[in-house]
Design brief:
single chain; 3-stranded parallel beta sheet; two-stranded antiparallel sheet
Length: 105
């Protein structure tokens, strides 16, 4: 994720001070990346920073999303655009991936 952060921040380079920012997230897990992004953008002078997420695995101290579509279990979910190794994203529903699919050993 650290390698992606410069690319993510670059997308906000043209953001004006006093802007209101809403980040749309598919699955909110730990929230660490969003916490970093929030701090960076607030240092740039944004007026507000909010998070909207389709799926929230857990509430954390790292970020408190303003808008949550659904709470979901703290498990690997796929379907409806979410994938595992480029598979399962075309499922017409969101489901929990069986651990045997992604666990090695």
């Amino acid at each position: 994720k650290k390698a992606l952060m410069p690319q993510i921040l670059e997308a906000f380079d043209s953001l004006a001070e006093d802007s209101d920012v809403i980040v749309i997230e598919d699955v909110l897990d730990s929230g660490l990346t969003l916490r970093y992004l929030s701090a960076n953008l607030q240092a740039r002078g944004v007026r507000s920073f909010e998070v909207a997420t389709l799926l929230c695995k857990r509430r954390t101290a790292a970020v408190d999303p303003r808008y949550v579509g659904f709470q979901c279990p703290d498990e690997f979910v796929v379907g409806y655009g979410l994938d595992y190794n480029q598979k399962y994203r075309n499922l017409p529903y969101i489901g929990v991936l069986a651990p045997r699919v992604y666990e090695k050993g």
